[in-house]
Amino acid sequence: xxxxxxxxxxxxxxxxxxxxxxxxxxxxxxxxxxxxxxxxxxxxxxxxxxxxxxxxxxxxxxxxxxxxxxxxxxxxxxxxxxxxxxxxxxxxxxxxxxxxxxxxxxx
Length: 107
Hints:
The chain is of the alpha/beta class. The chain has a single domain, classed as Nucleotidyltransferase, domain 5 (2-Layer Sandwich). The protein is built from 3 helices and 5 strands. A 5-stranded mixed sheet has the order 3-2-1-4-5, covered by helices on one side. It comes from Arcticibacter tournemirensis.
């Protein structure tokens, strides 16, 4: 499973970003290789349909789940249509490290 996590910056201790489409970075976690790579969100300043453009960018990376503080209506509809799981953390201060511990508790 490949998971994209919306982040404020490209570090392990970065909190999850509140806005899916406007976050500066995504961490891309590959569950098979247990590796994390960072992806700059080059679509964050788009003027129209930002969420769809970002979702499309992530789908090109074979993402099957996305973590963010919230998702816009169009982005959520698009991700649902593409059968991508959307996850919203319960705590606003959840970090990338917290999420990685949940998806791989043996670390």
